[in-house]
């Protein structure tokens, strides 16, 4: 069986891979950026470890969102819990397109949430009592990752295979 006979499935798998890889890369970048800032704070004051760790973990959610869309996509096309379904290239392309929002937004928002988390870590370093307010800044970036997750989730589930 050639790749051309399964082109729809190839496109759908590419969509799942993009969702997982791009959102995961965004999280890795963001967690790395925030981790650099957190390490500096903990070096100066180890008692702030828990607060800065929470800030560092915030950009990690984009990777989880991409993973969720990847699992949903694999389940939808029958690769989890059964045999792969036959699908047209057009259906595969629709699934790929449905996975793009969380992949692209996850990459971008993960990076920028990491940068915002690093700035918020700076707030906690100087004024630990402002932790709650500092959390709001990276949480605002999270909003757009959640919106991308929602649209990818709804789009993947709406496609008839």
Describe the 3D structure.
Helix content is 80%, strand content 0%. It is an all-alpha fold. It has one domain: lithium bound rotor ring of v- atpase (Four Helix Bundle (Hemerythrin (Met), subunit A), Up-down Bundle), CATH 1.20.120.610. The model has no long low-confidence stretch (mean pLDDT 95).
Write the layout of secondary structure elements.
Elements: H1 7-44, H2 49-57, H3 61-76, H4 89-126, H5 131-158
CATH class: Mainly Alpha
Principal-axes shape call: elongated
Let me know the largest β-sheet.
Answer: none
CATH architecture: Up-down Bundle
The name of the CATH superfamily reads lithium bound rotor ring of v- atpase
Q: Percent helix among the residues?
A: over 70%
For the CA atoms, what is the radius of gyration?
19 Å
Structural class: mainly alpha
The portion of residues forming beta strands comes to: under 5%
Number of domains: 1
Instruction: Quickly count the helices.
Output: 5
* Oligomeric state of this protein: single chain
Number of strands: 0
The end-to-end span amounts to 20 Å
CATH fold-level assignment: Four Helix Bundle (Hemerythrin (Met), subunit A)
Q: Order of helices and strands, N to C?
A: HHHHH
Sequence stretches where pLDDT stays below 50 over 5 or more residues: none
Averaging pLDDT over every residue, what do you get?
Answer: 95
Core attributes:
mainly alpha; single chain; elongated; 161 residues
